[in-house]
Amino acid sequence: MTDIKKDMRSQKWFGKTGKDGFIYRAWMKNQGYPADEFEGKPVIGICNTWSELTPCNGHLRQLAEHVKRGVWEAGGFPLEFPVMSLGETLMKPTTMLYRNLASMDAEESIRGNPMDGVVLLGGCDKTTPSILMGAASVDLPTIFLSGGPMLNGKHKGRDVGTTDLWKLSEANRKGDLSQKEFVEIEAAMCRSDGHCAVMGTASTMACMIEALGMSLPHNAAIPAADARRKVLAHLTGRRIVDMVKEDLKLSKVLTREAFENAIMVNAGIGGSTNFVVHLLAIAGRVGVPLTLEDFDEFSAKIPLLANLQPSGKYMMEDLYYAGGLPVILKGLRAHLNNTALTVNGKSIGENSEAAACYNEAVIGTVEKPVKHDSGIAVVKGNLCPNGAIIKPSAATPALMQHKGRAFVFEDIEDYKARVNLPDLDLDQNSVLVLKNAGPKGYPGMPEVGNIGLPKTMLDKGITDMVRISDGRMSGTAFGTVVLHISPEAAVGGTFGLVQTGDIIELDVPNRKLMLHVSEEELAERKKRWKAPDLGYARGYTKMYIEHVEQAHEGVDLDFLKGNSGSEVKRDSH
Question: 0.70 exceeded by the pTM?
Answer without folding.
Answer: yes
